[in-house]
Give the backbone structure.
Amino acid sequence: MFHRALLLLLLLSALILSRVMAPAAIGATDDRSGGIDLRDAVGSPSACADRTTTPRLIPPQDSVTLPILMYHHIKQLPPKASATWRNLTVSPQAFEAQLRYLAEQGYHTIYFSELIAYFNAGASLPEKPIILTFDDGWIDHYTVVYPLLQKYCMVGTFFPPVNWVENGNGKQVISWEMIEEMSRGGMEFGSHTLNHHLLTGQTEKQIMAQLVDSKAALEQHTGKPVVVFAYPGGGHNALAVSLTAKAGYEAAVGIMAGVEQTRDDLFLLHRITVPYSDDLKTFAARIRSKRPPPFLPGSSLWPDPRSELADR
Ligand SMILES: [Zn+2]
């Protein structure tokens, strides 16, 4: 038990160091950045150290108020975009405004590994903790999200389906090289299976393969433990939840709405989705709401990247 606690402490120290020392990785403006200025988007380590000095800490408890925001695409949408895409997309300008708001309000972005240590190993959390998650490995996670997180000295957790990365050629979906660079730059990666198929309806053997093989691939490329899992489409049942723990994960997220996280819900943590229509006032209310509205999936909510290509 002592050794496990020591190991967790070492891991946390390494994570905090990697955040403060996050290297300048992304260059200047990118024509895929959606029109925002990324020229000063590389936060210097000293600037980030200043920004993250000694926040007040929340002592360990069995529950914590911790918004876990769920993003998919960060890009401009054409006016005729469907309701599905409007629910899964935030414009780069709105996203940056949201990050600036979080920074101004004193929120501290944390890793899932820190939440796990809080519940399981008696670690503290910075006050006003928040987790930013990005599902499905879209290319704008590298071209827009990563530099903006660096600009604001923030971290995020990314859930790319492994087969999409393998087949994406770095065009619609991030590549292994991008994942490796982002990981070195202090970003956290979680598993979202190999192929993004719903786990409900699959056999135990099939689910285990999705859980174990995706975890191994991400760990091989990042050189870091993958501790968190996101159920594709939010779909889960008792078997999927128990196998996620059995496969070696320590936490999991679905799409159940809420900002209160408890130790008992470590494998069913709540998230809040941010739609395209949010202005800052709506966004501010959303992350504070004790009863955020449920996320209502559409029929083609999590389409294959190829269908996104067809939309263009
Ligand atoms: Zn997904």
In short: The chain has one domain: 2-22+63-311. The pocket of zinc ion is lined by residues 135-136, 192, 196, 232, 302 (CB under 6 Å). The chain has a mean pLDDT of 83. The two ends are 54 Å apart (CA to CA).
